[in-house]
């Protein structure tokens, strides 16, 4: 019999999917507003977990600083990544460019599309001191700062449905072998072991990056970043890809995973409607769950653990992958007036007391110092302190590969990894294809 929580969750899931689909092709609440001041700085950001926080912050800023008002526009993740690269390359990007750092940021820096922020930080030391240094470093390219963190630390974690684990009498996996042993147990119970939004491709990457790190350590991906010859042929990469295909072949993922989109929230819906037992995803998903399925969170049905260790692997099991935080860069195409207004917001609007508390209240962990007491007082204490501990204690916090690599390499990697998941190429073919992109 379907539980009340499940019936409510199904309604929430349908609503979330409808909303996400309606937003995926276009932006909202921005320069298209006929009342917007086109001379004001523009800001593009993502729909989803932090949207209300960004929106409220800017609305409050605009009310208190009408001479420095900002025009906002929001886009679904996949649509945004395509749109912003095209717009920035054409000199038509927003004043505030939402990003992840890494290779994409470097491509903007190399092309002269984003402004250096070191003089701003030197003039405003309090701004620099607010950030956790390891997170701030993600906006540094060749020793100069071009982006500042704008939201929360987002390590990728393994979410699980506690009720489904209780149903089969199991515990969350601590090792890869334990993870694989759970697959037939859940399948025999008619439950998908893992939810996965394979249509979006980038969720697949979380599996590869964690497995490569656990098997070979962060040095393997560093060799790829450094463009070393045949770096993609490292045994750790081949073994990780092999393990992924073994998990697919064992029916580890929900049927039809390659047609599920992350922007629609359908992967998370599988978890909270009791149709999938686990999901590997970013820290932002907890905020989405609070919005889309509050009863699932409030009933303490959602669990979260680190990615399992791989026996014999050289990587430290405390290493994490994901996004240290998202970032704001400022376009070099902005006018002096737009730049000045934007810098004023970065100084006095971003991570204001209200902004930081709103982020914590949403179930997120801001990438700033001195928030331990606020985290301890949070109604989401277990999750936010878990994430804070993961990020603070990690020997290595590796940026998502599709952002760390150049845009050309990142796109090629996601396309080839999709082929791995659907069984169209072998690990060796993946490595050969990707070795051809080194240096791009």
Description:
The protein has 440 residues and is of the alpha/beta class. The protein has 2 domains: 31-153 and 325-369, D-Maltodextrin-Binding Protein, domain 2; 154-321 and 398-435, D-Maltodextrin-Binding Protein, domain 2, CATH 3.40.190. Helices cover 50% and strands 12% of the residues. It has helices spanning 4-23, 51-64, 77-89, 102-110, 118-123, 125-130, 133-136, 162-168, 176-188, 202-216, 219-225, 235-249, 266-272, 284-292, 294-298, 336-348, 353-361, 372-376, 381-393, 401-404, 407-421, 427-435; strands at 42-46, 71-75, 96-99, 140-141, 144-145, 148-149, 154-161, 192-194, 276-282, 302-305, 320-323, 327-330, 397-399. Strands 7, 8, 9, 10, 11 and 13 form a 6-stranded mixed beta sheet that branches. It has a 3-stranded antiparallel beta sheet with strand order 3-12-6, with helices on one face. Helix 21 runs antiparallel to helix 22. The termini are far apart.
Number of helices: 22
Q: Which CATH class of the largest domain?
A: Alpha Beta
Query: Which stretches of 5+ consecutive residues score pLDDT under 50?
Result: 1-35
- Total number of beta strands: 13
Compute the separation of the termini in Å: 55 Å
- The CATH topology of the largest domain is what? D-Maltodextrin-Binding Protein, domain 2
């Amino acid at each position: 019999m379907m539980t009340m929580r499940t019936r409510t969750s199904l309604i929430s899931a349908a609503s979330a999917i409808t909303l996400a689909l309606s937003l995926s092709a276009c932006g909202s609440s921005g320069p298209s507003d006929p009342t917007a001041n086109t001379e004001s700085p523009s800001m593009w950001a993502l729909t989803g977990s932090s949207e209300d926080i960004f929106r409220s912050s800017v609305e409050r800023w605009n009310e208190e600083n009408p001479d420095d008002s900002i025009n906002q526009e929001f886009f679904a993740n996949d649509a945004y990544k395509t749109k912003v690269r095209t717009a920035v390359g054409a000199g038509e990007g927003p004043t505030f460019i939402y990003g992840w750092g890494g290779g994409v940021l470097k491509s903007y820096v190399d092309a002269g599309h984003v402004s250096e922020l070191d003089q701003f930080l030197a003039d405003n030391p309090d701004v620099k001191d607010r950030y956790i240094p390891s997170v701030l470093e993600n906006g540094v390219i060749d020793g100069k700062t071009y982006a500042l963190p704008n939201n929360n630390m987002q390590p990728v974690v393994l979410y699980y449905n506690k009720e489904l684990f209780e149903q089969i009498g199991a515990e969350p996996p601590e090792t890869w072998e334990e993870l694989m042993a759970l697959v037939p147990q859940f399948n025999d119970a008619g439950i998908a072991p893992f939810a996965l939004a394979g249509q979006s491709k980038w969720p697949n990457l979380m599996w590869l990056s964690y497995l490569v790190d656990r098997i070979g350590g962060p040095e393997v991906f560093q060799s790829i970043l450094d463009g070393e010859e045949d770096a993609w042929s490292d045994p750790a990469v081949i073994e990780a890809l092999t393990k992924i295909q073994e998990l697919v072949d064992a029916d580890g993922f929900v049927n039809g995973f390659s047609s599920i989109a992350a922007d629609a929230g359908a992967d998370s819906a599988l978890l909270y409607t009791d149709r999938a037992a686990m999901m590997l995803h970013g820290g932002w998903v907890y905020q989405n769950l609070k919005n889309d399925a509050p009863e699932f969170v409030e009933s303490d049905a959602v669990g979260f653990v680190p990615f399992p260790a791989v026996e014999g692997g050289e990587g430290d099991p405390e290493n994490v992958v994901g996004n240290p935080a998202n970032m704001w860069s400022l376009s070099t195409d902005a006018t002096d007036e737009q730049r000045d207004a934007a810098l004023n917001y970065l100084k006095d609007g971003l991570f204001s007391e209200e902004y930081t508390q709103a982020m914590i209240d949403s179930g997120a962990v801001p990438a700033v110092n001195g928030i331990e007491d606020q985290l301890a007082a949070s109604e989401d204490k277990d999750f936010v302190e878990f994430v804070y501990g993961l990020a603070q204690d990690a020997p290595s916090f590796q940026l998502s590969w599709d952002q760390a690599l150049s845009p050309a390499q990142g796109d090629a990697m996601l396309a080839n990894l999709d082929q791995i998941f659907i069984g169209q190429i072998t690990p060796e073919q993946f490595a050969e294809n990707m070795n051809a992109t080194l240096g791009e």
